[in-house]
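Support reply, case 0932

Customer input (verbatim):
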Amino acid sequence: MNRHLKHWIGMAPKYKYNSRFFRKSLVMMLLVASIPGLIIGVSIYWLASNNLEEELQRLHQNQIKQRAENIDDQLAYLELTFSHWAFDSKFDEKLKGMDIAYNFEQIQDLYRTLLVMEGTHPLLERVDLYLDKPKAVAINKEQYAYITDPLKRQPYESLLRQERSVFWTNAYPTLQAKAAEAPPKLSLVNKIPGGSSEPFGAIVATINQENLIKMLKTLTPYNEGETILLTKDGNWKLSSNEAGAFSEIDTALQQEYSKHNAGSESFLFEYKQMTYSVSYGQFSRLGTTWVYISAAPLTSITAPVLLLSKWILFISLSGLLLSLLMSWFVSHRMYSPIERLVRLLSGDKGNGQGDEFDLFEKQWNHLSKESESMRSELKEQMPILREGFFLQLVQGNFYAFQENDLRERMKHHGWKTDNQQFVAFMFQLTGFSNLQGRFTLGDEDLVTFTAANIIEELTATQYEQAQIINFHHFSVGLLLSFPLDHPMRFVDEDISEYCQQVTETINHILKMQVTVSISKWTHQVKQIPHLFEEARQALVYRDLLDDNQIIKTELLAKSSISMESSFPFTLEKEIVHAIRNGLENEAVELIGQFMKELSESGSTELAVQQGMLQLLGSIRYAVLQSGMNPVHLFGGVNLFEQLAQIKEPEEMLKWFQHKLVAVFVEELISRQDFHMKQMVEKVIVHLRENYMTMLSLDSSAELFGTSPYTLSRAFKHIAGINFIDYLTDIRIDNAKRLLRETEIRINEVAEKVGYQHTYFNRIFKKYEGITPSQFRELNRS
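Our regenerated output:
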């Protein structure tokens, strides 16, 4: 290229150049570069002063709405927490007959419970317990007091006369001596016992007004703003100022809100020569509508933008002036190298009226043509990349080629093919999840590339003909060839030493384990794709309990490998049961134990993977039984395909935990009512312990304090089976156990599982298809 350049320069005519063109261009570029900043500054200033108020008012409204939703969620969580406490066994019917003066231990237990309840939420200031029976008494964590005065009892009794079992009030009296001097505080009341139509007491949670004011201040994003919270009927209201009492601006805001509450959710409000952006909204709390109103001065919102736009405008003008001055000073120095280049290209030292960039363009076009011509010649002479050829070869893309054609192609790439035999290796890396910080997710290709380089370096020092193929995702292939007359005994020893060296090197450098599978030998090039497929399939027989392994397909075919393994059916049922009941941690532990038992009974990768796929199918069936659509729940992902791609047990366990169990349990928790779930679990325990007695849906509902309809519906929803079917399954299972393991008579078996003899025969044959006697005979045989 240099030779062509010198030749072209020698033949070029004398060229006149003029530096004024460059200086004018430089000045023009600097001016153009400064103009956008000037336009941006003017545009931002105009936007901030004319159109920004409306947009920022909308953004302020959205911001306040999001923060109000957070407050709504906090209050909803508080209501849900106290609803659960109302069903605690400490607040059941036993409190009706409790004598406070003598039941000291129970009172201490109540004190501790009230103390614990106070700590369940930061908004709580105090939790009181009021009991109407046997005597009217108010209890908190510090004391209890009998209420004998009828006038003082009226506020407490009014709580029990409310229609709702859970409600908010600001009329709850307090036990403190100076309570009458303090303004009434907001309280959450929950009648006890929970769900009862005849409550005899109430749990009263008094809200910490200071913390509520702090939460209310989050609706005021600027220090100069104001926020108020009030019930729609006006019985209770609170301001975000320190005292919580309404100021003049709060009263004015409330009055202005009453004029706009039927319109949009924001408006502008003028107060004492200042414009406020007001956003408001409401949320329902246990049948009561609460209203929040937030006001922020527009000057606090637009002032930073106006100031920024002025600075941008000032900086842009300054940059424009500076660019005009600097362009004249730096143009001469910047032009010096261009002047030397023009003299070099033109060979003319005089001045003229030409355009030096025209000279650059002509020379560049000439050199581009020369370069393109040389590149085309080089491209025509370049052979097909060696790595690309071998990758296509092992993938079977040359299946239509004849044996001789493939041998010629390999010779073209420098391989000897006459009187040669070939063998394929597959290196599978494991243990990526245990590197703990050396690599992160997404580095799989980097790790595989490093392993391929290590294998290539070790191979190059020992073998003359070798080709590395990077299959990515921790898999590396290797193709070797040896002369046909080479003694196989020495070849096998040499290969074993080589594999040992590769595994030790990768263990030392990458801290990962290696499984090597070695294919059979062949002297045909067309069989090479089959060798790699054979070696790849042999990897599934690796022993999960060993770190580094060498698998020879010849020995694998000769040996009788048993794939029979003991499938832990009991653990499978326990896992499904734990997941159905939302016990995520217990389910993950059981899955780990399930995988451990699979590994111990049949430790090959194939056996463990098949067992985990079976477990996935059982869990997916449990999802369907729970009334959920797996396609919607897991986003349409093919779970079986994902699991089949995972090779390491640790990664399998993480996949089950995060991609399956956590997703299902989260959806399950969001759907189920925990109180009903606990009740059904107690009913199930009761059925399992008393199945031999006369049980019915009505008696069980009465025992656990609910209606038969409610129990039947909850049982079907949570257990996935009808009440009577579940009881029948328990009795039939126990009857089968007695028939298999004992010699007692059929009528005695019927009595032990809660059936009459004639009915037992009918129900057993209905469920099992045979009579009890036939079942016993079949199990004996």
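We compared this against your earlier run and they match. Two observations from our side: Residues 386-558 form a domain with the Alpha-Beta Plaits fold (CATH 3.30.70.270). Residues 14 and 347 are 6 Å apart (CA to CA). Please reopen the case if you see a mismatch on your end.
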